[in-house]
Amino acid sequence: MTDTAPDTSAARQPRPAAGHRLDVTHVDGDVYEVDVRGHRLLVDQPVDAGGTDIAPTPVELFAASLATCVAFYAGRYLRRHGLPREGLRVRSEFTMATDRPARVDSVRVVVVPPPELPARRYAAMLAVVSHCTVHNTLHEPPGVRIEVET
């Protein structure tokens, strides 16, 4: 009789992800409405790019997504340690690539902690916010498939 290790391949398989959906609908010109679970927001383009500049661009929302995810994780860190979130701010800056394809070249995210956060906790908070879901996704990009419905 031979000893065999238990089959753990199923345990290594990722769990099926819950599906999420959002819908984007043309409004006018370069303006689109995004519906996310009944929450609605608009996107547009700046005037110099042919839009009316009534809303952020999709790329600005991309950078905002990262910044707000970092802010959320920072806020949760503060709450978990009994520290106030008042005064917490996150700033995001990005540059576009100068070559093709069109894309964001770099993003800088700066966390401005509340004044009550002791300096000895900065490194721990940085470690936490560096693992926010959006940041993790940028480091482990998802598969993306774009289709035209027929």
From TrEMBL:
Coiled-coil region(s): none
Positions of the UniProt region annotated as Disordered: 1-22
Domain of life of the source: Bacteria
Gene3D superfamilies per record: 3.30.300.20
Bias type Polar residues, positions: 1-11
Pfam families cross-referenced by the UniProt entry: OsmC
SUPFAM superfamilies tied to this protein: OsmC-like
PANTHER family documented for this protein: OSMC-LIKE PROTEIN (PTHR39624:SF2), PROTEIN INVOLVED IN RIMO-MEDIATED BETA-METHYLTHIOLATION OF RIBOSOMAL PROTEIN S12 YCAO (PTHR39624)
Name the UniProt record assigns to this protein: OsmC family protein
Organism of provenance: Streptomyces triticiradicis
Organism classification: Bacteria, Bacillati, Actinomycetota, Actinomycetes, Kitasatosporales
